[in-house]
Amino acid sequence: MLGWRVLSNLVELMPHDPESLRLAAYRLQDAGLEAQAVPLLRRIRELAPDQPQSFRPSFWRCRHRRRLKEALGLLAHVVDSPWPGRFADIGLIALAEHNDLRTRCAGGTADGVAAELQQPLPLGLRVLLRWDLDSTDIDLHVTDPNGETVYYGHRLGYRGGQISRDFTAGFGPEEFVLRDPKPGAYKVEVNYYGSGLARLSRGAGVNVALQTGFGTPGMKQQSISLRLLEQSGRVAVGGFTVAADGRLELAR
Questions:
Q1: 21: part of which helix (H) or strand (E)?
Q2: Where are the domains of the chain?
Q3: For 165-188, what is each residue's pLDDT tens digit?
Q4: 136 alpha carbon, distance to own chain's centre
């Protein structure tokens, strides 16, 4: 109840600040209150239409047909729109999410996306990192069972793991993908590298989604949220374990 009052006060005090609304919306999502988060996310799109992250929907479940249609339309908008260079690769990430959602959800259509781009890419492992501060650089690191770490300075691993281009100016997402994971343990870490914000900040809110079976009807996800302070070093947030028989489990 106290947390709900704090978020309500934040929205009332700063109704025209997209970063504050984004913070509140993300916390509501973390608490499973998606219905309460949706109006805030729509308001963010009105206030910050120049940021593609404002159009990446939060509702990835299939049970709400109306929200599913809205989510697919928002992702198609991110795919087809030109964005500033600081948001490099956002269209590719949104395209993968559009195809995944359409593949998993009955009744999902591909309106707004060219037919030749409607090709889901099944992935054994996928990690998605996002954060809630602009002008901020937070990095994703994934280490495989051989001890090889894929990150912005080493984007392609020996076993095929790959990470998207580095988002150094805010929000993310940064994405790690691996189609056929080998047996063993995979460690996921994040590093709050730095911020160019002129104002004092008490850290950044970070969300990491650990996904298996992305691009298939059997996709599973575990979402982890935490708050990081600048220059806190690499912080372990979760991982995956792949058994010798190919069974794959999410592990915190």
A1: helix 18-30
A2: 122-252
A3: 888 877 889 999 999 999 999 999
A4: 15
